[in-house]
Protein 1
Amino acid sequence: MADLRPRVWVSQPLFGDLVGRLREHFDVIETAAVGTHPPEEIAAMLASCDGALVTLNDRVGAAEVAHAPRLRAIANVGVGYNNLDVAALTRAGIVVTNTPDVLTETTADFGFALMMAAARRISEAERWLREGQWRQWSFETMLGGDVHGTTLGILGMGRIGQGIACRASGFRMRVLYHNRSRLAADVEGACRAEYVDYDTLLAQSDHLILVLPYSPAVHHLVDAAAIAKMKPTATLTNIARGGIVDEDALADALQSGRLAAAGLDVYEGEPAINPRLLALRNVVLTPHIASGSLATRRAMVALAVDNLTAALGFGPRAGDPPT
Ligand code: DGY
């Protein structure tokens, strides 16, 4: 007898208990290995599916769904969705969902921590100590820059940017931000943040943090010319997407002392890292883990599972009372 249950593809192992909820309504095909699937493999999996749960490892556009007549929904486990060609998928009648809100606070925590680690040279100091270089306490060991009382610049003032701004007020920082559109006055007031143009943000920030979504329009927005406008004592932290920063220009600036330090959680060619960055001491490098607390990663998967279930017609409909 033909199988009438919709079929969904889960592109990598996620939390089994949460993904297991999909089995109530769907036949689930799970790919057992983590990794970047080649386009042909994604196309082959989608060809026989009604829906898919994917991550930033999976790039899906017109070519991957060209032979997927049943496909109606793709749920991305992540707030950023530059791995998906939303315009092409929408044209193909496919609903795309992401996981905002549930990761805001965790990601803001991490952005703040990465900025502090870069400013206070925490990774560099730890490596130096582990290398056995600490012979005796000295007054001038690993002197860094302050965070409290300085000026924080936030590029991209969505939910996560606002979360970072709230944290900054506890450190008595002046907060500047630049965004596609200015926030409403009451939101600015709650964040104690001042709107400035991009050049002013670059020139006045002691610590600049990138939290904006990636699109081709912001590719290498932080390039050599932008870095040249920053203070030489400043730090740059990127928890958005690697493609926003010209990594060679950043490496030049860190190497020459044109910029004090950087904290990077995302990279243009991740998981490959620009070898020039790997060779520098004044950059803290982490493997795209800003949203990576256990509770938040579980919340992201749970939300993506709910999104996929609803998009395929089994979730609560608008107007249903909350349970
Ligand atoms: C996001 O949610 O966009 C994070 O970068 C992890 O996917």
Protein 2
Amino acid sequence: MKLSTKLLLGAMTAFMLNQNVLAKEVNVDITVQELEIEIDNKGTKQMMWTFGGTIPGPVVRVKQGDTVNFNLINLKSNKQSHSMDFHAAQVDVLDEFSEIKPGKSKNYTFKANYPGVFIYHCGASAMSEHIARGMYGVIIVDPKDGYTEDYPKPDREYVNVEGDLFEAGTKPNDITMGKGWKASLINGKVFHYDPVHDSDASLTLESKPGERVRIFFVNANINESVAFHPIAGIWDRVYDNGNPKNIKYGMQTVDVAPAHGMVFDLISPKGKDTNNALVNHRMKRALNGAITVLMNHEDYDGKKGQDGNLVLREE
Ligand code: CU
Ligand code: CU
């Protein structure tokens, strides 16, 4: 064998080994809980259906090429059938995504082939009601190439999910038609991170002036797209679907379709304290809950948006 061929084979073997080492199997177990949960900063409770007891459900984070070994548990104490639809999966809607009754569990696997930020949601009938009651979450698939010039490492990361809140007891058909709509939820609460419009709000997103803040945004509204805009800022980069290949620069307002996700990078001015309000610029939505304050201050809380602390919640 020629030396060059040997070297090539050696390099290929090393590459394949490397790929095997990098691609992991990730176990994800999520339990459906139907429960009364706080839907605003005052502590008002409403009967919601959840993945794991929170809205949104737990953030699932894997790397492109990983295999997700997923287990859905529908507690015996629940009343409804539920299912799990990962938008990051390429499977069979009639098989993997089928619904299971209370007391049952369901296991399936899928390979995360595409990088990005994807919604997951319950697809059990009536799907409008299951989503509108809070059955959604986020799966982030980090690109296999990691951070690059096109997809720089952010200083801080947050997950921001907008969803609907309907009056308790609204019938599924009315939910589908938008009747009984009450407010917008951001990560499960009305004005969750907006002390300006809600004096009971105790949290804001934070960063240090000049940092690159990355927002993994998902629209969990059942009917309406989100016109996502950073008041007093410009999106430095927007990655459609969160894929590093889909870059837009210097954007003001970007429409995110229902059940779609995008990555938004924002860089605040250096050397002075500033604030942004990340809004759904559809005013009906903004003024009914869909505003998030981002404070870029020298005395920022450095733990926020770091080490997997992507969804801020009250302690
Ligand atoms: Cu469900
Ligand atoms: Cu879907």
